[in-house]
Amino acid sequence: MAASVAAVLVGLALPTAAATPASATTTAYDATYYKNAVGKTGTSLKASLHTIISSQSKISYDAVWNALKATDQDPNNTNNVILLYSGVSRSKSLNGGAVGDWNREHVWAKSHGNFGEVTGPGTDLHHLRAADVQVNSIRGNLDFDKGGSAVTNGGGSLVDSDSFEPRDADKGDVARMILYMAVRYDGGDGFADLEPNEKVGNGSNPYIGKLTVLKQWNEQDPPSAFEERRNQVIYDTYQHNRNPFIDHPEWVEAIW
Questions:
Q1: What b/e readout covers 103-126, taking b as 16+ CB neighbours within 10 angstroms?
Q2: What residues in the chain have per-residue pLDDT under 50?
Q3: Alpha-carbon span 75 to 165, nearest angstrom
C-alpha cells in the first residue's frame, strides 16, 4: 500500500510549510505603555501603536554616534559595538568613514521617502545601527529580499542587483526595525508615509519590500537578548519610546 501511495505522489509538488505565527507574549508594559493597544488587531492596532510610539524624544544625527555606542554595545566587551549584517565586534572608537571603521546604517534606507538625516526618521535609533562602512555601502538603499551572492565580510549576508538579505541572526531585527518605521511614520508629522510593500527597486518612493519576506524573517528570527536590551536602552535613556514588535512580535501578523 505504501509503495502505491508513493507512486501516486511522484511528480506532485508538496505544499510548503507555512511559518509558525509568533506566540502571544506578555510584557511588563502591557498594563501601562501598551494599555490602549492590547487586544486590538489590524488598522485599529496599527493606529493605537502609532499614537503610543509617536510620543518620543528626538536626538540629532551627530548625537547618534554616542547613542549607538550604548545601544549596540557588545555584551561580552563593553569597549566594542556589535555590527549589523556582519556580526563583528569592533572598537567603539573606530566610528567614522574609513575602511575598517563603523558608521550609522539607516535600516529603512533614508532615500526611501527622502527624509535624509533630518531629526525624526533620519535620526530614529529604532532603525539606526552600527555597521561596517564597506558592508553598509554594499547594502546602500537596496530593498530586502532573499537571494544573491555573498557579501564580502558580511557574515553570511547576500546581495544582488536589487535586494539585500541580512545574515540569519539579523533577519528578524531588520524586519522589526522596518515595521516599526512603517507604524511610527504615517505621513501625519510632515514626513512621508512609510509603508512596506511587495516590491524591490522602490528607489525614492516611501516604500520598502518585501513585506512577505520580512514577515517570514520576523518568525524565523525571534527577538534576541541583544535586541531586547537595545529596545530598553532606547526607551530608558534616549527616545523614551519602544519598538512594539520586539515586545510583541506576534503583532506583525496581527497588523499585516
A1: bbbbbbbbbbbebeeeebbbbbbb
A2: 1-18
A3: 25
CB 135: neighbour CB atoms within 10 A? 24
- pTM value is 0.91
3-state secondary structure of 13: coil
Q: How far is CA 182 from CA 21, 32, 108, 144, in A?
A: 20, 23, 9, 15
Provide the total of helices (H) and of strands (E) in the chain, helices listed first: 9, 11
Q: Domains of the chain: which residue ranges? A: 26-255
For the chain, the maximum distance between any two Cα atoms, rounded to a whole number of angstroms, is: 70
134-185 pLDDT, tens per residue? 999 999 999 999 999 999 999 999 999 999 999 999 999 999 999 999 999 9
C-alpha cell at 151: 557579501
Q: Which of 207, 160, 152, 157 is nearest to 179 (CA)?
A: 207
Q: C-alpha angle with apex 189: 188 to 194, nearest 5 degrees? A: 65
